[in-house]
Amino acid sequence: MRKISANEDVMTTREAGETLGVAVRTVQLWVEAGVLPAWRTAGGHRRIARSAVEKLMAERKHDLAPASEPVATALASLKLLLVEDDPLLLRLFSGVVAGWNFPVELTTATNGFEGLVRIGEMRPDIVVSDLIMPGMDGFEMLRALKKPGSGFGNLKMLVITALGEDEIDERGGLPDGVTCFQKPVNYSKLEALVHKYFTDKLQRATVK
Q1: Does the pTM exceed 0.70?
Q2: Cβ 202 vs Cβ 67: under 8 Å
Q3: Cβ atoms within 10 A of the Cβ of 177, count?
Q4: What pLDDT is recorded for position 120?
């Protein structure tokens, strides 16, 4: 059988990064998160199917297509707060966000209380939060933000959780308007949704 060369049917993480326009570490994080299927050689090196890279590249181009009108404030960034107590997931999410094709100002917090403090300090555009955390959990934080008169009723909030719908309902459910992503997270869909918020922000800025 003819040996398959790296530049034909498989790619290294460096080649995948160059093709996708992201850092090698971002490719590695995507592999670890399941965004890119890969395997290891006998020598321990990751190999990624070229077809998987091309598919992801096509999805990113489709999801992140530029707006039809040029935007004067294109250098503006989206302020995103991630509330997550797992340091590994914090690092993973940070690496994923670093690979997005639009500017994001990422801030992190490790529980609901710290999240509320950060929200008051930075006034984020979007909050992405886990639900089960020590101290004040995500349920309590979201309910506090959605209380009448909180001043944050219109804040965009996304939840990332391993809990099923029944388990969430048993804990009182989520406030209206909160989008839920189940773990393992489909980061392509998450990116597309956050990108939509980003373009909406730019469009609002041009109207003012």
Answers
A1: no
A2: yes
A3: 12
A4: 84
